[in-house]
Specification:
- This protein is of the alpha/beta class and 288 residues long.
- Strands 3-2-1-4-5-6-7-8 form an eight-stranded mixed β-sheet, sandwiched between helices.
- Strand 2, helix 2 and strand 3 form a beta-alpha-beta unit.
Length: 288
């Protein structure tokens, strides 16, 4: 029996890459999976859902249970339909894995408004909307006296945690997802929901030629986070890559200096003192 036996799971962006690996592993661990992917990039264009259907068929061929969804998760109604698909097909929703998105890499000086809007929409809005509709379902359950034992697993990135040259839109979107994860964990906890993020170090995996291994590691972590055994873990960001799982500790208040009233002549000296006692920032990917 798998660690997710009988749990109903929605995976967005599941037609390829990490999302596909997550859907397959969750099914292997006994979950009933709604495989979501519109089959298009960028999100917002009409798609045939072909990749989602292929992954769902692969799960069923292996003896698992799965249905396909080609709903656009960056659309309010589409995200609502996705949650309703899980409820109608399998009678509930236990785990939401938000992985929809794509990259459109350009230096900031060359980035267009469309480059920015499309990537932010796919990743950040595409994470928020399914979470919004799923949380409404879980809130209603809690109000009726049946709190869930549910999970949300978002997808950030190593780039979002540390920065990456030529990926300002992707960095901003996935950094926003990490921050949203922290807030959602606090807000959804009373409904019986944990919220954690998986941050694949994709750029390093590609350089090392181990993208598939990185996908499998992310999928294994996702399956555990989706299981009943992870109910004590929430509000965390896990980085996965190069054969390792690490815990990202995020922003914390560092050295400080205070006074009743600051004079601008004193600010420079105060900042110099703060910098002298603070760690050096992690270098942005692509820069020494």
């Amino acid at each position: 029996m798998g660690i997710c036996e009988g749990r109903v799971v929605v995976v967005t962006g599941a037609g390829r890459g990490i999302g596909r690996a997550q859907a397959l592993e969750l099914a292997r661990q006994g979950a009933k999976v709604v495989v979501n992917d519109p089959g298009t990039s960028p999100y917002g264009a009409a798609g045939d859902g072909g990749p989602a259907r292929e992954v769902a068929e692969e799960i069923r061929a292996r003896g698992g249970q799965a249905v396909a969804s080609c709903d656009d998760v960056t659309d309010w109604d589409g995200a609502e339909r996705l949650v309703k698909t899980a409820l109608s097909a399998f009678g509930g929703l236990d785990v939401l894995v938000c992985g929809a998105g794509f990259t459109r890499d350009r230096a900031l000086v060359a980035m267009t408004e469309g480059d920015w809007d499309d990537v932010i929409r796919a990743h950040l809005k595409g994470c928020f909307l399914p979470m919004r509709h799923a949380s409404e379902h879980w809130r209603e359950r809690a109000a009726a006296g049946h709190p869930a034992d549910a999970r949300v697993i978002t997808t950030s990135s190593g780039a979002g945690l540390y920065g990456s040259a030529g990926q300002g839109n992707y960095v901003a979107a996935t950094a926003g997802i990490a921050a949203l994860t922290h807030v959602a964990a606090a807000e959804l906890g009373p409904y019986g929901v944990t919220v954690n993020a998986v941050a694949p170090g994709a750029s390093r995996d590609r350089v090392a030629g181990t993208a598939e291994a990185g996908e499998n590691d992310a999928a294994a972590l996702t399956a555990w986070l989706g299981s009943a055994g992870s109910r004590h873990v929430t509000g965390r960001v896990f980085e996965v890559g190069e054969g390792a799982i690490s815990l990202a500790t995020g922003w914390r208040q560092g050295p400080s200096a205070g006074g009743d009233k600051w004079d601008r002549a004193d600010v420079g000296a105060a900042v110099a003192g703060l910098l002298a006692h603070a760690p050096v920032p992690v270098p942005v990917y692509g820069f020494a």
